[in-house]
Amino acid sequence: MTRRSDTRWPIRRWAALLGLVEVALLLAALAGGGIALSNLTEARADLLDRTGPELLQANALSAALLNQETGIRGYLLTRQADFLTPYQDGRQQQAQAVAELRRLGAASDTETGADLGRVLVAIDSWQRVAAAPTMPGAAPPTPGHVDRGRTQFDDVRSSLGVLQAHLGVARDAGRASLSAASTFLTTMLVSIAGLVLLLFALLYFGFRRAITIPITRLAEEVRQVADHDIHRPVRGSGPRELVQLADDVEAMRQRIVDEVSELERAHALLDTRTHALERSNSDLEQFAYVASHDLQEPLRKVASFCQLLQRRYQGHLDERGDQYIEFAVDGAKRMQILINDLLSFSRVGRRPGEPVVLDTGKLLADALGNLEPVIAETGAVFTHGELPEVLGESSLLTAVFQNLVNNALKFHGEQPPEVHVDAVREDANWVFSVTDNGIGIETEYAERIFVIFQRLHGRSTYPGTGIGLAMCRKIVEHHGGRIWLDTTSERGTRFRFTLPATLEPARADTEAIDRQEPSQETEDA
Known about the structure:
Blueprint: H1 11-78, H2 85-106, H3 110-130, H4 143-227, H5 240-313, H6 319-347, E1 356-359, H7 360-370, H8 372-378, E2 381-384, E3 389-392, H9 394-410, E4 418-426, E5 429-436, H10 468-478, E6 483-485, E7 493-500, H11 505-524
């Protein structure tokens, strides 16, 4: 299947197209500017370096001929040699002017060369006639000789006038050509400036149409999807890369929609199970009520009458009858203890009190006070290190210390129990240790002992219901900690449990409020 992006031009192709168009226009502008500048340079060089100097040299030639004619006329009138000096200087100036005209290109210019040739022929004819009387030993000039020289000089002037007229026309033409080249150059410069503006405009609008507008449109579509309409499809436009990006975003959006749908289904299932759990909790609460009232009442009656039978008929029945009554009384008592312990276990965390800062040293003292008869009976010795303050519920944490110490008193060896309680800080937690010199627990039972009703010894050897450690775990986890058996202890038994360290007063109050909501959720669970 062909993707939409396969038929689109990529950005590099759009950039190459715009670049080629701009380069072509720029080269055309530069070529036009170069031609205009070349024309201007050529026109200026022709006017300043050839036509203008030629006209100046023609004027210099005219002045040299006038000097010659003046010198000859003065000599013919006075017959003094001093008057020939202008004539001689004029001859030199004539030679220089003619040489300069030829150097400037009169010989290569057909019209100017022809004009110069006619001038030189006229000058040569005039000089042969007019200058003859100035030669040494020449006869005095006659009136006819003078008239002929005047006529020939007029021919020189006429020929020189034609040359000057043609050079004037050439100068005017050069000026017009220079003006036209200047105008053309100005036009080209304005055109180049306009073309540069056109290139910038073309680049701007081309970039805007090919890239900016598609990016803006894609960003708007993505923003709408992110803000409120996740089911809105994303359709990109423009170059191939943007279309591919839009396709990738659309694929990601579709995956998110699928995941959200799956999450909604999971939430619906979770709600269903939550409602079922709430019904189960309600049934459990009803069971707890029944166990605490309806079950205990007949159980107390059974226990009371069994005790009455034991007191009244003990010694009147045979040995087996007394044993049966004793079994019945013991079973009723154990059932009462078991129900009370089970109720206590089920109530942990169901109706939490407000967490407060507690002195664990005082909690340990209260627990030891509750166990004072057993302590006196066993002769136990207690020691403890410096115990910190923690955030929690007094009755529950007192029960933890009481159950752990009671285990140490219950499972002791031949020596009197020795119990040590200590606490150390590790990061954000306090780690408490309860160590004794009792019979110890095998490593393989490190997890089993925290399961409710799990016992490692028979009731005849060590009394109890097997709920104490399970209740300790539930209370510690309710306070955000954990409890475990330290299997590295070399003798006796060591239990460790953690509790979060006390926060600063302001944060402690906030944390206490925040913890009430999870506790309520725990109660519902």
